[in-house]
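Re: that chain you flagged

S.,

Sorry for the slow reply, it's been a week of failed gels. I finally had a moment to sit down with the sequence you sent. For the record, here it is as I used it:
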Amino acid sequence: MKLAIQFAVAMATAMIGAGSANAQSIADKVRERGYVSCGASQGVPGLSRPDDKGVWTGFDVDSCRAVAAAFFGDSQKAQFVPLNAAQRIPAVQTGEVDVLSRTTTWTYTRDVAVRFVAINLVDGDAIMLRKALNVAKAADLDGLTICLQGGGSLVENALDIIEQSNQVKVERVYFDSTILARDAYFGGRCDGYMSDGFAIAGQRAAVAGNPDEHAIFQSGATTEPLALAIPRGDDRWFDIVRYAFNAMVWAEDRGITSQNVDEIAASSTDGETRKALGVDPGIGEPLKLDDKWIYNVIKQVGNYGEVFARNLGEDSPLKAERRFNALPRDGGILFPIPFK
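Prediction finished late last night. Pasting the structure tokens below so you have them in one place:
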């Protein structure tokens, strides 16, 4: 009897091990499907938003297109799934999306549920208010109603800090999505609309009928890391997503752009640059990718500075400053992992 039990346990253990070994990896699923499934917002200008033809654009969109460029050699092999705050983490856990690239703050409780890969933006809270209210400081918020999306850590933390630090009280009006909260504000339901700073700037620039009627109040209460996330348990996919994003930062640090990458690939004598751009062999082998994968990210999507400029910065309607999201030499905290 004892021998039979031991045999049964051994067989069960072997079957579990075989099941784990034979489980299809995320990369295999993505390859078989033919595109990367990207979790996006429900439509935030500058970050992730479809145009009238259904083509998605934005900073978070480009962060996921970089993964497609690295993996497939084609940045267009990415499809976007709009998610609200409550849907985003479950969508990663269930594998509905391969990459969550949607204004999500990296927190401890979320990181034990999914796996955060890289911080792609550092942002803070902001409130859009009508200029007629003359809000100049946090104390002026007392008694106002604020529209916001439920389930977001950044704005909740910021409002808590504002109230506690300034002895004020605001009325919070929750909505299922940031779009509903925004529309309620523009419709007069609330005195203010609160979200991430870049999101607020995008909504004012692209959606407000007259942007000059609205002011943006930044309390400075929070500074939070917005990050890319993937399902847990797949180290290869983690590395692919992490280093696809890192390729954009590395390229900016090296002065390599989508416009000059061919020239640099042809002329550089630097060993790291030559290998990273696929001139010398070997950069693709650890990730089982083509040696041109970094080149493809830069050529098709651009370096981090290019992506920021066209979606959020000087080449966009938002005209946002980079602040933390710049290289250290430019006063920021963004830095690349060397490709050595």
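What I noticed first: The two ends are 57 Å apart (CA to CA).

Talk soon,
D.
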